[in-house]
Amino acid sequence: MNPNNKLDAIVIIGVSLSSCLPNLVKECNERGLAVVLVSENRYTPDMANYHEFIHLYQERTNMADILFEEKSLTEGKILQIIQKIRETCHIKAIIASVETYVEITAKINAVLGLQGPGAKAAFVSRNKILQRMLLEQHGFHTPDYMVTDSEADVSDFIDKHKTAVIKLHNRSASFGVKKVSSREELSAYLEEFDGQTYLIEQYIKGREVSVECIVQDQQIYLFNITSKGKGEEPYFVETMQLVPAGIENRVSRQLYQLAKDLIEINEMCTGILHLEVMIEDSTEKLYTVEYAVREPGHNILDLINWRFNESALGLYMDAMLGSRIDYSLEEKKERMAVTAYVDFPEGEIVEILQRRSLLEIEGVKEFDFFGKPGDTVKRAESNYDPIAAIIIFAENEDELRATLDEIDDAFTVKIQTASGLVNATLTEKIRQEVAVNSTVKN
């Protein structure tokens, strides 16, 4: 084929159900760029909520101008597909949408001379143990930790700290993350995840936030702080993200410097830094927990895009395309946005009371509910367990509270719990986080 007839294209490797893909496709198409999706379809009929998940997955894959779908995406298969794409497309950027493909994407970008986070940032970010080693070497505050596959070692660690958080060293989506406070709880965990390498760390009591930066050539062009909510312990499932986080200016400046230092020691070049930090209650010390060099999940980039006058995605694309960024974004300081994966009380759904479509409510951008009467609701152990998800945009806090009132008027779920019948709402945890944010005075 004549090279002049090739399509200018963006390649996205992996399909996340909670990424900014719909808006990213729109941004690319407005620039005259085709979107090529390289996807692994891992959804099988035996999965919980299979029909709902496969529907969402197919909605997203249908957005592609060109789709390559495989049952399994090995590095060899990805390289084969990239070669096939190059026959008909001028590849302008390659983006990893899923954590699994961050490292191979960085390698391909390096070979093809495309923008990306860089090899060191990619492979270190993919391994929680390497992260801790690098952070320790450069004097960052991190929770005390141990890497082991020995139950005896971990038992000694729990004896020392009384309470700890244990996680698998190379997983995401909150999978396998659990708080343990006794040897019995530890034994149960190790039995469930036998034969793994574990990262066990000191439990820090405090507030969790994440920092998102859009970076080009190691320079930060967008800085955001997101407030994080989690489900019921002992699990550490992210169930809510609120933009912006209510943070004192002093702490915000410390977080900015932390992100800047992290970019430097990881030799991160271009892309998105997503950094998770605990702010200890008793000391306000910042503990770096972990980080990634790809778009965060939970539609956080969509929330940020709203906050920055719907221009953050354009900035991200300029960075990834290698366009010179010589402008700054307008931040709508009153705007708020939230994603919630609703963690309902444990029990059995008795009745779903929906008095109107939530998508008719101004500010509600997305809503999914996977439950039905008779279903058992369990405590969320990973990001795939909650049966409801909602995204809300608001011009200010008063508007957000009014939208939450409308949502509760429109939708409740009756759940039979061990302690009795409960009228569960979608907004309880959101209201709690908004209240926390409101108490912060700069």
Automatic annotation (TrEMBL):
Q: Which domain of life is it from?
A: Bacteria
Q: Which Pfam families match?
A: ATP-grasp_4, LAL_C2
- Residue span, ATP-grasp domain: 132-326
InterPro entries documented for this protein: ATP-dep_AA_Ligase, ATP-grasp, ATP_grasp_subdomain_1, LAL_C2
Going by the UniProt record, its keywords in alphabetical order are: ATP-binding, Ligase, Nucleotide-binding
For the keyword Nucleotide-binding, the answer is yes
Please give the PANTHER family that the UniProt record associates with this protein: ATP-GRASP ENZYME FSQD (PTHR43585:SF2), FUMIPYRROLE BIOSYNTHESIS PROTEIN C (PTHR43585)
Question: What is the protein name given in its UniProt record?
Answer: ATP-grasp domain-containing protein
Q: Which organism is it from?
A: Brevibacillus ruminantium
